[in-house]
Amino acid sequence: MDPGEAAILESSPRSFSRLFALLPQLPAALLGRMNVIDHVRDMAAAGLHSNVRLLSSLLLTMSNNNPELFSPSQKYQLLVYHADSLFHDKEYRNAVSKYTMALQQKKALSKTSKVRPSTGNSASTPQSQINMMLANLYKKAGQERPSVTSYKEVLRQCPLALDAILGLLSLSVKGAEVASMTMNVIQTVPNLDWLSVWIKAYAFVHTGDNSRAINTICSLEKKSLLRDNVDLLGSLADLYFRAGDNKNSVLKFEQAQMLDPYLIKGKTLGALFASSFVGMDVYGYLLAREGRLEDVENLGCRLFNISDQHAEPWVVSGCHSFYSKRYSRALYLGAKAIQLNSNSVQALLLKGAALRNMGRVQEAIIHFREAIRLAPCRLDCYEGLIECYLASNSIREAMVMANNVYKTLGANAQTLTLLATVCLEDPVTQEKAKTLLDKALTQRPDYIKAVVKKAELLSREQKYEDGIALLRNALANQSDCVLHRILGDFLVAVNEYQEAMDQYSIALSLDPNDQKSLEGMQKMEKEESPTDATQEEDVDDMEGSGEEGDLEGSDSEAAQWADQEQWFGMQ
């Protein structure tokens, strides 16, 4: 939080209202006499750092795709403004990289070329900063109307304040109304024809229309000067993740990481909305879910080298521990991440999951509820809470929550599957679960969670041939550890042992830590060689006797990890 923002928070409500009432109404900038660099400069002077970062990133991408758009001195200024905004966000390694690029750009300038000094409308500086802080604070307090008013005032002074645009869209202001507030600047400043499409895309984002948002952003990213923009790629990773398309989400994260090796946290929706969009911590989580623990470990080390003062590297390392079944260590790392950023949704989910798996369900529930408060559009927050309810046999609470999610987020494959998951827990609602899963698979035949739950239902009914057909169809265009393992189970049930062994082998090649696939393979080997299997079981028991205590975890072990911060990157 900025010092000015903190000072406003500490003031009394009466003085806070008085400050807002007494703000002078200054005239808008003379757009016809300004270019886009002038707008960036004025926002930087006004302290609108998140807006500067977002706009300068887009403009630099445009410059890379068409070097003739901006003069060398203008590109130099953009690099400096972008680096300044990174420095403000404490992303020092990334800032150094951009400052270095700026120095290289300056050396390339002709000796007679001079960077134009700042001549912007400095009179608007105090009001634009203050209004942005007011809008943020009003939004945090749940006061939507004054927040909207303040954001609009920011746009009146700085019509290219993209973070303020996102603020309005997040408060349900219609995209057409927001676009009308930028029409003048689009018509008078060159090379801003993409802005109206950009606003349209994020209007879809904030109304939950993920499919249209993805299509619109893809059109921006592929067909315009904004190709290979890290912020747009981050948006696509976010949207694919929300839609449950983890494969494409990982691909977009990988693209963004290659373009910006210092990327550590998402900036797609601006600093204000840090709790509602994804960063590299979610990338680590997705890799861990795929069983790519070596990649997760490498990612964690890379992020620690960038900064150990952000939550993301701690969350990534925590995901590695969690999926290695070292829950006490995951708990400590999640707590450390929350200490650095109390609004880190992924840290709350990590800590909640660790607590749940350690049997501390009530504590886990508290963390999942807080994650829902911060990110009410993220389905995985609700999934964690519902899993806690089911773990504690609170089926009624789970059913109420699943129905609320279904009504709030709409009838899509994800919400249908979540509701079906709860219905499967009650024998009375088995038929309803079947109907819901059929609807989900009609919408998305490749949705893995729906396939898994439908296979579970078919297994209960001993319809193994139907299950095999379902799984083969799902695996036709994708490869997933869980699907291969379940197919192996079904093949065993119909005495197709050789192919079952092949499926278990494929599952383990995708995730060597998948215990159920290993157990399925070992069970088949025991049936083939009872004597050898008995000896292997004895060895496994001896090796597992010490490991079980480690998986359980304890407060004393968490304290031990707290004493070893140097191992995690704290020097």
UniProtKB/TrEMBL annotation:
TPR repeats lie at residues 345-378, 481-514. Pfam families: TPR_16, TPR_8. It comes from Camelus dromedarius (Dromedary). This is Anaphase-promoting complex subunit 7. One of its GO terms (biological process) is cell division. Residues 519-529 have a biased composition (Basic and acidic residues). Keywords: TPR repeat. GO terms for cellular component: anaphase-promoting complex. Residues 534-555 have a biased composition (Acidic residues). Residues 519-571 are annotated as: Disordered. It comes from the Eukaryota.
